[in-house]
Design brief:
With 268 residues, the chain is α/β, with parallel strands linked by helices. It contains 8 helices and 9 strands. The strands form 2 sheets. A 7-stranded parallel beta sheet has the order 3-2-1-4-5-7-8, sandwiched between helices. It has a two-stranded parallel sheet with strand order 6-9. Helix 2 packs across helix 3 and helix 3 runs parallel beside helix 4. It starts with a strand and ends in a 14-residue tail after the last helix. The chain binds 1,4-dihydronicotinamide adenine dinucleotide and D-galactaro-1,5-lactone.
Length: 268
């Protein structure tokens, strides 16, 4: 694939990572179509289009995807929430997106999956993309479903996806667990670019993690992407380790998904 698209759709553009990629993906596309259910900054000239959309609305998503060459799909519920919320934004949302891609011209999708697909693996394990899925909540289940949708739309319709199981992508790691799961914004951008422009990815699953000292994830199955992280959480170690210690019985010290493994159910 060439290294520049005609029109790229970015869902979840109003969110934390959406704002980062709105800026850093500029060189990757002639036109960046920005979408979210929440308000976004106005388009900055002809290079940007702002198209509000609820991912739960099938007809609106169909119109949103029309005319786009590829999609970076960040939109949806990004934390553990009641099932009904996750159902609309994430489960129906990802289905609507792939249906629209099938009907239109978007043949490459970068799907923001999550480490919460495998959150019940222990922090003592090192796992690769083929490890058993062990979702740690409704949110993790929705991302697991999204990965299955991606595989199905490749097998049936040839739509290619890179599912990035993002660890923790914030300006800096916020706690001890994130020393292992942290993904810098620079490495995130590189990984998204590789995911957009590497040819013949079929459906690739890759862990979105920087070159941290103690990572739990082996990306050898995604070596064809050529992703080589440049950053490491090590620069933040002293600051993070100044925090109070975490009890060994705390899920944050046991499971790869940390505290997500103990959230919910809601409304009992
Ligand atoms: P975020 O919560 O800041 O952004 C998500 C965006 O999706 C929000 O702007 C929200 O308004 C939008 N959204 C929610 N429901 C929607 C709907 N029904 N229709 C349209 N838009 C809707 O999350 P963040 O941190 O920017 O993450 C982006 C993506 O990456 C999410 O899919 C998240 O699950 C995934 N991810 C992020 C990680 C991180 O460390 N930041 C870790 C693992 C996965
Ligand atoms: C996620 O999937 C969330 O979207 C993000 O907010 C973080 O909580 C991250 O996982 C994490 O596991 O640290």
């Amino acid at each position: 694939m060439a290294n520049k698209l005609g029109r790229l759709l970015l869902t979840g553009a109003a969110g934390g990572l959406g704002k980062v990629l709105r800026d850093s993906l500029k060189p990757s596309t002639d036109v960046l179509r920005l979408s979210d259910i929440a308000g976004m900054a106005a388009a900055e000239g002809a290079h940007e289009e702002v198209v509000p959309c609820d991912l739960g609305d099938k007809a609106a998503v169909d119109a949103l995807v029309a005319g786009c060459d590829a999609v970076v799909h960040l939109g949806g519920v990004s934390i553990e929430r009641p099932f009904e919320e996750v159902l609309e934004a994430n489960i129906k949302g990802v289905f609507h997106l792939y249906e629209a891609a099938r009907r239109h011209t978007a043949k490459r999708i970068v799907f923001a999956s999550s480490n919460h697909v495998i959150g019940f693996h222990k922090q003592t394990e090192t796992i690769d993309a083929g490890a058993q899925k062990r979702p740690d909540g409704y949110y993790g289940l929705s991302k697991s479903f999204g990965e299955d949708v991606a595989q199905f739309y490749f097998d049936r319709y040839g739509i290619e996806t890179v599912s990035i199981r993002i660890g923790s992508s914030f300006p800096e790691p916020l706690n001890r667990r994130m020393m292992s799961t942290w993904l810098s914004f620079r490495d995130l951008t590189t990984l998204v670019e590789k995911s957009l422009f590497t040819s013949d990815v079929k459906h690739t699953i890759v862990y979105g993690v920087s070159a941290n000292r103690d990572v739990w994830w082996d990306n050898s199955a995604a070596a064809h992407l050529g992703y080589v992280p440049q950053d490491s959480s090590e620069q933040f170690r002293a600051k993070v380790e100044a925090q109070p210690p975490v009890a060994p019985t705390d899920p944050n010290a046991i499971y790869q998904g940390g505290g997500f493994t103990a959230q919910g159910p809601f409304g009992d």
